[in-house]
Amino acid sequence: MRRWNGWGDESIEFALHADALAFLAQRIGAGRPVTDAGLAQARAQIGASRLPEHALIDTSPEVRLRNALGQSLPDWLRLRYGVIGRAPDGVAYPQSAQDVRELLAYATQHGVALIPQGGGTSVAGHLTAPSGMPSVAVNMTRMRQLLYLDTESQLATFGAGVFGPDLEAQLRARGYTLGHFPQSFEYSTLGGWIVTRSSGQQSLKYGRIEQMFRGGSMETPSGTLHLPTFPASAAGPDLREMVLGSEGRMGILTEATVRVTPAPEYEAFHAVFFPNWHAAETAVRQVVQAGLSLSMLRLSNPLETTTMLALAGHKKMIALLEGYLSLRGCKGGKCMLMIGVSGRKSLARAALREALVLTLPHGGVHVGRTMGEKWKQNRFRNVYLRNTAWQHGYAIDTVETAVDWPRVEIMMRAVEAAGAAALGQYGEQVHAYTHLSHLYAQGASVYTTFVYRLAGDYEADLARWKSLKKAASMAIVDNGGTISHQHGVGSDHAPYLAAEKGWLGMSTLRAVFAHVDPQQIMNPGKLAP
Ligand SMILES: Cc1cc2nc3c(=O)[nH]c(=O)nc-3n(C[C@H](O)[C@H](O)[C@H](O)COP(=O)(O)OP(=O)(O)OC[C@H]3O[C@@H](n4cnc5c(N)ncnc54)[C@H](O)[C@@H]3O)c2cc1C
User: Fold this and answer.
1) Distance CA 251, CA 417 (A)
2) Cα(157)–Cα(421) distance, rounded to whole angstroms?
3) What is the chain's mean pLDDT, rounded?
4) Rg of the chain over CA atoms, in angstroms?
5) Phi/psi at 397 (nearest 5 deg)?
6) List of residues 6+ apart from 233 with CB closer than 8 A
């Protein structure tokens, strides 16, 4: 059963061993565990529905609660402290495009907002019910079939509500993969990925979702937008670009056609350590600019490297590894790089060899596959750390951006420092660490994690989060980064969007939304409020 107030399946726990807790306590102080609100207490806060009846809409309080929020830290605070606030007045589970059209007609007639919903894994406040009008969460997860696989063109069409594991299982059974593995893979959906411009861990080989999305169908209040597939087209602006990143503001994506590739014959993940950040960053830049056929490069800064080793357990093995690395020049400031290869065995191995050769002049120490394979095993389990950290009285939040290479290190330092200063106002320390997980010839994504102590009170923790978010977002904007490389805009990043789109860009976006949705019933308040 899925947790109603945290990440993932109720039966899965991520254990934090005593040494890891001691490490955190030494960095930022001992956590102060909070008593969570119970499900009944949260459910009792869901007010009476304001909706006229409709056969497709369920207005029961628990269903509304379970579809009210996403996974951002403010969403968590509301669930954990039992301060639910606004919730949708009902939830619909359409099974066809016709059902979606009926819901649009109903919403238009009664002045009801529709909040399209995939897996509810948004970390940017995409799913909050609007104030001032009734709303329905349109949960798309019953539209999850593989509708068509064109093996000649390597295109697959799915219902947009298909979850990651279900999509991959349907493709793997036929010898194919999409290759899109965001860390939220187990609970996020194809439609959600497309409309938030998501990026998966192996984007270096398979591309971002933008490169995979080839066409589909979106139901809007003004009619159906059909996006036919072409291998390429010079017929004016590409309308798929309007759907990508539209965050539910234009309509509901019901079907999506994506580019698939044959499932890889071989896949391996290796770890390489570097003596310091400068050497590591120079090395990965050269590797990515060499254009090798790799599937992943993920570089952790010194504090993330230390944190990952501290959380790993296996104390004796890690001590042996650190002893060996120290002899090879990788000491206190060492940085860990994960390199992934996927595809034809001979090509993948050749690409890995080339990459390892390129790391050597920068002091790269290759330690083989063990750590890489462990990372792969846990790639979707590490997320459960958020639940465990909360139980021990710590909050975890992340911010992410992307910049060109000359600004990567500046950005990393600025975002980490902004977080430390923001929590410093409350007399608290923050454990902030960063990795680059999506690398391009031009630059990289910069992804920072903040761990800090909970205050133990909803208002106080919300104030801490707001200070942290504002400081980190301002650091991103001031240093020329995009407000999101992969999580999207929602409501949390909306105040910073104009900094990169400009006045004309913002008014153009609003004009497009107003054209397809003249009554402004589609996910109001998000992206470009
Ligand atoms: C622990 C964790 C790790 C994450 N890791 C990554 C990562 O590695 N990479 C990454 O890119 N993101 C990541 N995310 C963010 C999140 O998973 C993505 O934004 C994901 O694409 C959201 O998909 P979803 O199906 O859960 O959509 P939701 O959260 O349900 O919705 C997100 C937005 O999409 C809209 N929407 C959803 N479905 C449709 C549809 N069919 N039609 C129209 N609009 C729709 C919603 O209205 C909303 O605005 C992570 C989140 C968490 C909690």
Assistant:
1) 39
2) 47
3) 97
4) 23
5) -135, 160
6) none
Digit-coded pLDDT (tens) for 257-299? 999 999 999 999 999 999 999 999 999 999 999 999 999 999 9
> Ligand 1 centroid vs 172 CA: distance in angstroms?
23
The band of 348, judged by pLDDT with boundaries at 50, 70 and 90, is: very high
Task: List alpha helices for 379-479, DSSP H.
Answer: 385-391, 408-424, 458-478
- pLDDT the model gives residue 378: 92
Per-residue pLDDT at 512: 97
pTM: 0.98
**Distance from Cα 261 to the centre of ligand 1, integer Å:** 23
**Residues 6 or more apart from 274 whose CB is under 8 A from it?**
280, 283, 330, 334, 335, 337, 359, 362, 363, 364, 365
Residue 265 is encoded by which pair of tokens? 């014959």
Give me the residues paired with residue 35 across strands. Answer: none
| Beta bridge partners of residue 224, listed in sequence order | 219
Which letter does DSSP use for residue 123 in this model?
A: S
pLDDT, tens digit, 9 for 90 and up, residues 95-113: 999 999 999 999 999 999 9
For 200, the 3-state DSSP assignment is coil
Give me the pLDDT at residue 314, please.
Answer: 83
**Is ligand 1 within 6 A of the CB of residue 437?**
no
Cα angle 130-4-434, degrees, rounded to a multiple of 5: 85
141 lines ligand 1 (CB under 6 A): no
Domains of the chain by start residue, with CATH: 266-379 (3.30.70.3450)
> How many residues are given for the chain?
529
509: helix, coil or strand? helix
- Mean pLDDT across 136-146: 98
CA–CA–CA angle 146, 150, 151 (5° rounding) = 110
Give yes or no for a contact between 221 and 519, defined as CB atoms under 8 angstroms apart: yes
pLDDT tens sequence across 461-501: 999 999 999 999 999 999 999 999 999 999 999 999 999 99
Span from the CA of 122 to the centroid of ligand 1 (angstroms): 5
Ligand 1 centre to CA of 118 (Å) is 7
Element (H, E) at 287: helix 277-289
Please indicate whether residue 8, judged by its CB atom, sits closer than 6 Å to ligand 1.
Answer: no
Tell me the one-letter amino acid at 413.
R
**Which of 14, 99, 180, 184 for a ligand 1 pocket mutation test, highest count of atoms within 8 Å of Cβ?**
184
The pLDDT score that the predictor gives to residue 315 is 87
